[in-house]
């Protein structure tokens, strides 16, 4: 089993993955969505598990944006009460990216998560694959890759050293009242501030263009390729397209040297909820995929952008399919043309299976091996007749 559940996380991400047997699956959780979606999304999904089965083998908090990190903050505060345990937690916080330069400041929510993960309950599970250092793709050499339960494997695609350096130098929502790494003060402030609200408006920096995301927070996203049982899926967070493209090309070249062919994957969770700022021709040239997944209700930022679907369709060999975890006026703009379709889009309740807590379920299975033509099978069978067995 390789099952993806895109939980109802409003304009954010909360991705629940199950691998292995249906009776005793191993679980990966990516992000927690915004605070406003936590109760009816991630909390509801966890509460549906039997008390003794509330274990997450790997919890990945991709980056510090509120639509990804806020639900994680709430979960870690009530994990003990819910009986939720973790095998490993991935997050690039201040402890991983800090520099000796004085005067640098960390974003408030990142500081909160830093403080929570620094407690004894979680400290020994934090970025253990890298011995507690940052998860980062080196500029040269093989991409970092680790085995995960049930014979699956994760290959890191983002962030790179440059993105981590920018995050260190320019935290956008900076602390001004206390120093980064002051866990005691961060926990005190967190206890006094339980309610997180999404931003009311989108910051505008001129006309949108493909691949133009320059957000420091988005660039620091932990993104990776997850492979299991012959199936591959890109989970892109909000990563920058040029970083993803470079990593995917390196991975494809390492597996098929000299061919220059794109990496074939079975599903691709679009970065930044289908924003055209996070897709590019360079990225699409680096990967071959027919199934693209969008996680958003379209609120706050108006994602996904229809030009994203148009660009994907223009670079696809066959008609691509988009799967949306919400059916809203905004996501309906992502639908294909009924008269002359260049792509198909599916929504909850229209051929997509709903998850236990809402959202959608996507079951990934190995592609069936094509049977040879009938005539070829007959020739092969005839050629085996009359041969003496020795």
Keywords:
single chain; 390 residues; alpha/beta; Metallo-beta-lactamase, Chain A; 8-stranded mixed β-sheet; 6-stranded mixed β-sheet; 16 strands; disordered C terminus
Roughly how many Å apart are the termini? 42 Å
- As a percent range, the share of strand residues is 15-25%
For the record, the CATH class is Alpha Beta
Mean pLDDT: 85
- Second rung of CATH, namely the architecture: 4-Layer Sandwich
Number of strands: 16
CATH fold call: Metallo-beta-lactamase, Chain A
CATH homologous superfamily identity? Ribonuclease Z/Hydroxyacylglutathione hydrolase-like
Please give the largest β-sheet: 8 strands, mixed
Label the overall shape.
Answer: globular
The count of domains is 1
If you compute it from the alpha carbons, what radius of gyration comes out, rounded to the nearest whole angstrom?
Answer: 22 Å
Number of helices: 14
Low-confidence stretches: 100-106, 172-178, 193-206, 373-380, 385-390
Which structural class do the helices and strands define?
alpha/beta
| Helix fraction bin | 25-40%
Arrangement of strands in the largest sheet: 6-7-8-9-11-13-14-15
């Amino acid at each position: 089993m390789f099952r993806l559940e895109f939980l109802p996380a409003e304009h954010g991400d909360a991705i629940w993955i199950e691998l292995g047997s249906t009776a005793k699956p191993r679980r990966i959780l990516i992000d927690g969505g915004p605070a406003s979606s936590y109760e009816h999304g991630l909390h509801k999904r966890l509460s549906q598990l039997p008390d003794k089965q509330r274990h997450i083998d790997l919890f990945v908090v991709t980056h510090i944006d509120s639509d990804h990190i806020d639900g994680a903050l709430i979960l870690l505060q009530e994990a003990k009460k819910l009986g939720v345990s973790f095998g490993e937690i991935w997050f690039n916080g201040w402890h991983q990216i800090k520099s000796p330069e004085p005067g640098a400041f960390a974003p408030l929510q990142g500081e909160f998560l830093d403080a929570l993960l620094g407690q004894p309950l979680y400290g020994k599970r934090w970025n253990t694959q890298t011995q507690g250092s940052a998860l980062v793709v080196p500029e040269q050499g093989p991409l970092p890759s680790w085995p995960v339960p049930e014979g699956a494997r994760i290959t890191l695609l983002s962030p790179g050293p440059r993105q981590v350096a920018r995050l260190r130098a320019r935290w956008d929502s900076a602390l001004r009242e206390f120093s980064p790494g002051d866990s005691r003060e961060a926990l005190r402030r967190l206890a006094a501030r339980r309610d997180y609200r999404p931003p009311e408006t989108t910051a505008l920096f001129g006309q949108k263009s493909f691949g133009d995301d320059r957000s420091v927070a988005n660039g620091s996203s932990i993104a990776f390729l997850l492979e299991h049982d012959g199936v591959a899926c890109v989970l892109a967070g909000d990563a920058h397209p040029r970083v993803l493209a470079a990593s995917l090309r390196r991975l494809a070249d390492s597996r098929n040297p000299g061919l220059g062919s794109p990496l074939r994957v079975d599903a691709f969770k679009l970065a930044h909820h289908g924003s055209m700022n996070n897709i590019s021709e360079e990225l699409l040239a680096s990967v071959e995929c027919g199934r693209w997944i969008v996680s958003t209700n379209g609120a706050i930022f108006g994602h996904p952008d229809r030009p994203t679907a148009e660009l994907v369709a223009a670079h696809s060999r066959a008609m691509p399919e988009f799967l949306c975890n919400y059916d809203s006026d905004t996501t309906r703009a992502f639908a294909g043309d009924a008269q002359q379709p260049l792509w198909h889009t599916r929504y909850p309740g229209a051929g997509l299976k709903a998850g236990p807590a809402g959202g959608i379920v996507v079951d990934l299975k190995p592609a069936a091996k094509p049977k040879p033509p009938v005539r070829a099978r007959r020739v092969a069978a005839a050629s085996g007749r009359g041969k003496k067995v020795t």
